[in-house]
Amino acid sequence: MLIRLYNVSKVYPNGAVGLLDVDICIKQGEFVFLVGPSGAGKTTLMNLLTRQILPTQGQVIVDGRNVVRMKPSEVPYLRRTVRMIFQDYKLLPNKTVHDNVAFALRVTEGHPRQIRARVAEALELVGLSDKAWARPGELSGGEQQRVSIARAIVGDPTVLLADEPTGNLDLDTSWDIMELLLRINRRGTTVIMATHNRAIVNGMLRRVIELDSGKIVRDDEKGAYGREAGYGMVLPG
Amino acid sequence: MRLATVWYFLAEGWHSARRNVSLISLGSIAACLFVLGAFALVLMNLNHISQSLHARIEIRAFLEDDLSPEGVAAVKAQVQATNGVSSVAFVSKEEGLKRLRSQLGERAGLVDILGENPLPDALDVKVTDPGSTAEVAARISRIPGVLGVNYGQGFTEKLVATAHLVGLAGAALAIVFVAAVVFIVGNTVRLTLIARGREIEVMKLVGATDWFIRWPFLVEGMVVGLVGAAISGFFLFISYSMCVRQLTRLAPFIPVITTPEPVAALCVALLVMGVLMGVVAGGVFVKKHLRV
Predict the structure, then answer these.
(1) Is the reported ipTM for this assembly greater than 0.90?
(2) Which residues in chain A have Cβ-Cβ distances shorter than 8 Å to B5?
(3) Residue B173 — φ and ψ, nearest 5°?
(4) Looking at chain B, which residue has its C-alpha nearest residue A156?
(5) From B196, which residue of chain A is nearest by alpha-carbon distance?
(6) Using CA atoms, how far apart are residues A97 and A144, in angstroms rounded to an integer?
(7) What are phi and psi of B238, to 5 degrees?
(8) Cβ separation of B2 and A109 shorter than 8 Å?
């Protein structure tokens, strides 16, 4: 089991409940949607997996490592295997596309030649080889999200967490991004994606974990966004 | 650590310093270090003067004017036999005047105003232990034929006490100025932290270690401290050279430091201090403002 949450609860200092007694198992290579209304606990769950926050109760195991008991000095190494992409991309505007992607490898102190080769490979995978020297401000929203995906996958992470990656994109561009995430998933990377996009969830027919008020209310092997199933697959799995 | 990574830290630190440091900050750092350096120079000179006076400590026993050459020889023999005396040399009144002229340098003309030679014959007495100078001088002053003795009574003690006071005042000021420099450098680093907040957030999310994030800030602190210290060192060296030139002309008998080596060493020490203070300030402020 790649990810295991045991009775995890997270209550914020202001009393807001992030998660409540949650148990989750996720296998290597799975593609999991996290759905639910705003404030349901999707982002809390992702932040726990990257140890941006600690649970108030329970244990979080990622790739055999207990995230809760991990020493602070071990956290950077966790984040090299569990990478995130965001709705607002979090790109550095003053760096080129190439440098934004290379940044993720530079922090791991990789060899410059190796960094160049892997960045080129990642940019080719996301279809942005010709925009390597552009700055994020010169790209469309979809292209910026591709750069952010390239940055996330360039270090070959075990898990890719996507927090509303299509939230700012139109439907066609969103499908392009989903196609890309599927390709990354097929290479063996576990993808966990939080989304409100009903069409995408229903179209992909993957595992769906629904959260509400911090609790898991549904965990379907091949689920739909809501309780209505049977939209069928649009993209091959 | 890879060379490429070291180069990355240096480049990032240098660019941040160039972007964020203001002339006012650099000027303030340079001014603080300049005052510190000036105090150190005063202290070094006081010590130098006191050391050279100690090395030259001797008792001068002035002889009565009407002594015959035999009388002088007898007094000299008695002084030589005094406990604690290592050597005795006769200094005639003409020789004494010659020495005074050479001590006064450009102002030797003053001696001519006096008309006749006012100096008595004297004996220069070296003691075996500089600590017992006062006792030996008292014994010599009781020998018949000795008009009086002079061994710079109290002067060297006062000099040492002054050096001690200057040292204390310097130490107190040093604390204030070091704190000021650390604060100014730290504030520059804090501005960078704010300006690069997003970059730091991304660095943390993609798995940068604490030290990977901190190093460019330490380099930035180092650069700011080094440049501030270099400016202060430059002005300190120039202004000290000018002061020494004036002093050796106006008061040549004061044995100040005239060789450039000690001053250059002080400038190097200022540079090292600037770098260290920069690193400390960078480190402290990054730790305070950056939750990595």
Answers:
(1) no
(2) 106, 109
(3) -65, -40
(4) B206
(5) A92
(6) 9
(7) -65, -50
(8) yes
Say if strands B59-63 and A17-26 run parallel, antiparallel, or are unpaired: unpaired
Q: Give me the residue label for tokens 């750069």.
A: A147
By C-alpha distance, which of A211, A228, A178, A185 is closest to A43? A211
pLDDT at A201 over 80: yes
The pLDDT tens digits of the residues spanning B147-202 come to: 888 887 676 667 667 777 877 887 888 888 888 888 887 887 788 788 778 888 88
CA–CA separation, A18 vs A39, rounded Å? Answer: 7
CB A134 within 8 A of CB A153: no
Strand A17-26, strand A215-220: pairing: unpaired
The encoded tokens of residue A32 equal 């999991």
pLDDT digits (tens, 9 = 90+) for B102-116: 777 767 677 677 777
Q: Which parts of chain B have pLDDT scores under 50?
A: 292
What's the whole-number mean pLDDT along residues A153-160? 92
User: First vs last Cα of chain B: how many Å apart?
Assistant: 20
CB of A29 within 8 A of CB of A74?
A: no
Strands A31-35 and A190-194: parallel
Residue B88 · residue B136 · CB < 8 Å: no
Query: Which phi and psi angles does B41 have, rounded to 5°?
Result: -65, -45
User: What is the dihedral sign for C-alpha B173, B178, B179, B183?
Assistant: positive
CB A134 within 8 A of CB B26: no
Instruction: Please tell me the distance in Å from B226's CA to the nearest CA on chain A.
Output: 27
Give the tokens for residue B32: 């603080």
- Residue A92 pLDDT exceeds 50: yes
Tell me the pLDDT band of A234, cut-offs 50, 70 and 90.
very low
Q: Does B210 touch chain A (CB under 8 A)?
A: yes
Closest Cα partner for B50 from B189, B141, B162? B162
CA distance A45 to A5: 10
Q: Say whether A103 and B203 touch across the interface (CB within 8 A).
A: yes
How far, in Å, CA of A79 to CA of B208, rounded? Answer: 8
pTM of the complete model: 0.69
Q: Which two tokens stand for residue A12?
A: 């914020």
Query: Is B207–A84 a contact, with Cβ atoms under 8 angstroms apart?
Result: no
CB contact (8 A) between residue B202 and residue A79: no
Cα B14 to Cα B210: distance, rounded to the nearest angstrom: 19
Interface test with B, best of A86, A107, A108 (most B CBs within 10 A): A107
Whole-angstrom distance, CA of residue A215 vs CA of residue A19: 6
Q: Is-contact A158 A63, C-beta < 8 A? A: yes
Residue A187 DSSP symbol: T
